[in-house]
Design a protein that fits this description.
The complex is a heterodimer of chains A (271) and B (336). Chain A has 271 residues and is mainly alpha-helical. Chain A is built from ten helices and no strands. Chain A is globular. Chain A starts with a helix and ends in a 6-residue tail after the last helix.
């Protein structure tokens, strides 16, 4: 693999995707999708959370616990979501076949598309943060940057890899949104975005621990709220690394298989 | 002779599900097999402009898609520039390009230059070379002055020319053009044909062109294969193919108000081999194309029959047989 070539493709796809998005985005769209929607969702869910919170843990601790996961979730979800629809969107636009005919590395192309979607999610996070601070008293704790970067990077790699499989499935089932909508509640339930894992029955906790997103959210909290260092979370990091490797293996193998299936059944031109 | 494209019993079967009959028809669907390409054997020489002609649904696009590695064959195989389409698709993709017709297949929110820049990256063309290539191909297709306009503001013809520019970007050794002039106005189609010819003459690119315009294939191609229902039914130079109809006299008539029944009557006139009728767009007129043996009083009998059926004959002339007549002779109907 020619790394410089892949990097150039990556930068070009991200840049042109952003240009396309900016040209598509009217001021009204931007206000609705990038500002109001995430802000309202954060406000609604955090308000419910502050009403429901109680017991031995202070409401503020719980709110901080939730907000970190909410912010991480909008970032992670944009990647999983995007992966399923990027190739399908190309198909609808009529550009998928010429993309396939070109010698571009589709893995690089898909990562770049997902990264471009993640930039949009980061915009929403940047807009939501002041609300979280002023309205709900959210503050980051003692941030441990290294743990945060390492855990978020590993989670991203695992999600990009799962995304390859989602992209192939999206082309075959022709309803990638329905697929994403079906997967989302399970990921939500098991990744412990809204509650600690101890709430789940023990057998379900084991299922949660098989998901990279669970570690992604947990380590994001550990790093951003509690300032835990790498040695403090080494066990979880090791699990996340292992899961990431498995995801990369499964993702690459699945896409290779699905890609052949797509060409065998002629799914490239039918949608 | 060195071949750029060779196919060996290339076959593609599609399976579709057809609605069954009766109450449970929607649930119990019948599987149906459609042979889109049937045992296709072609050898296309290096630098040849080869035409694959046939009506809609004949298997032209399916064949091109298999050769561009977009579709796997059901059986048989093919090689493009010496590489197998099933096993060596990455090597093929570096050496080919394709125009798949239609208005889409471009990033509409980007400008022409941005579209071409994206693809220059996909083909790993160095930046400075890419800039020069983009300029060159845009000039070739006469879009240099609109290079920085968004594609969504382009006319259909301009989009088609941009498709061709994109396909030339990587200096392909083999170029697949699927109906490149479909839906274009006469001037736009003429320009596209001119670029393709220039390309073959100046750069010795091998071109496989599909079209259902017989005159286009006749005017442009070194050799033509006629495909119908997935099968190649004739293959030769346009001149040799036309020899199949050298003993045929072709009569072309413009008429008004012709019922199907009259066409059937015409077919029964001794000496008439085939009759094809097609409506002239935006008018009540029809054009009749009759293949006859040219003997005796056949022309007089045709006119007399039309008059007897109260069909208004506006004009008639005998014309030289074309590739379209070859197709009519082989298939029994016209290409459209």
């Amino acid at each position: 693999m020619n790394f410089v070539k892949e990097l150039k493709v990556f930068i070009t796809v991200v840049k042109l995707s952003q240009i396309e998005r900016i040209r598509w985005m009217t001021p009204v769209n931007f206000v609705c999708f990038s500002i109001l929607s995430p802000v309202f969702w954060l406000a609604i869910t955090t308000t419910i959370y502050s009403v429901m919170a109680g017991g031995p843990i202070s409401p503020q601790t719980m709110i901080n616990f939730f907000i970190v996961a909410f912010l991480a979730d909008s970032f992670f979800r944009s990647i999983l979501w995007g992966s399923a629809v990027h190739l399908y969107n190309e198909q609808v636009a009529g550009t998928l076949e010429i993309l396939y005919v070109s010698p571009v590395n589709l893995y690089t192309w898909m990562i770049a598309k997902s990264f471009s979607g993640a930039i949009d999610a980061l915009t929403s996070i940047a807009i939501s943060l002041p609300l979280a601070y002023f309205a709900f008293g959210f503050t980051f704790g003692a941030i441990n940057g290294l743990t945060a970067i390492l855990s978020i990077s590993l989670t991203l790699v695992s999600l990009y890899s799962i995304g390859f499989a989602f992209a192939g499935i999206g082309l075959i089932i022709k309803q990638p949104w329905a697929f994403s909508n079906t997967i989302q509640p399970y990921v939500f339930l098991l990744s412990c975005i809204y509650y600690p894992i101890t709430i789940l029955p023990s057998w379900l906790q084991n299922v949660s621990r098989a998901l990279p997103t669970y570690y992604g959210y947990k380590l994001a909290r550990d790093a951003l709220l509690y300032g835990k260092g790498i040695t403090d979370v080494s066990g979880d990091l090791l699990y996340l690394t292992l899961l990431t490797l498995i995801c990369v293996f499964i993702g690459l193998l699945s896409f290779k298989y699905l890609d052949r299936l797509i060409r065998k059944h002629g799914f490239l031109s039918t949608f | 002779m060195e071949f750029s494209v060779q196919t060996f019993n290339l076959t593609r079967v599609f399976e579709t599900k057809k609605k069954g009959s009766g109450f449970l028809g929607s649930i119990k669907r019948k599987k149906e097999k459609i042979v889109a390409a049937d045992d296709i054997n072609l050898s296309i020489g290096k630098g040849e402009l080869f035409g694959l002609v046939g009506p809609n649904g004949a298997g032209k696009t399916t064949t091109i898609k298999m050769l561009c590695t977009l579709l796997l064959p059901t059986s048989g195989t093919a090689s493009v520039d010496g590489h197998d389409i099933i096993e060596e698709r990455n090597k093929i993709r570096e050496k080919i390009n394709v125009v798949l017709g239609g208005e889409r297949a471009l990033y509409w929110r980007l400008t022409a230059r941005e579209n071409l820049w994206a693809f220059s990256r996909f083909y790993n063309i160095p930046g400075n070379v890419a800039n020069a290539r983009i300029k060159e191909v845009l000039e070739l297709v006469e879009l240099a002055d609109r290079a920085d306009d968004r594609v969504e503001r382009y006319s259909k013809g301009m989009k088609q020319r941009l498709h061709i520019a994109r396909a030339l970007l990587n200096d392909p050794e083999v170029l697949f053009l699927d109906e490149p002039t479909l839906g274009l106005d006469p001037d736009g189609a003429r320009k596209v044909r001119k670029y393709i010819k220039t390309l073959v003459e100046e750069k010795q690119v091998t071109v496989l062109l599909t079209t259902h315009y017989m005159y286009e294939a006749e005017e442009m191609c070194d050799r033509v294969a006629i495909i119908n229902k997935g099968k190649i039914i004739a293959l030769d130079t346009p001149r040799e193919l036309k020899k199949l109809v050298r003993k045929t006299a072709v009569l072309e008539l413009n008429v008004k108000g012709i019922p199907d029944q009259s066409i059937q009557v015409l077919k029964r006139i001794p000496g008439v081999k085939n009759v094809v009728s097609k409506g002239i767009p935006e008018s009540e007129l029809s054009q009749l194309r009759l293949q006859t043996d040219g003997k005796g009083k056949v022309v007089a009998e045709v006119i007399e029959s039309l008059v007897r059926h109260r069909v208004k004959v506006l004009s008639f002339q005998t014309v030289e047989p074309t590739l379209e007549d070859v197709f009519i002779k082989l298939v029994g109907t016209d290409v459209e």
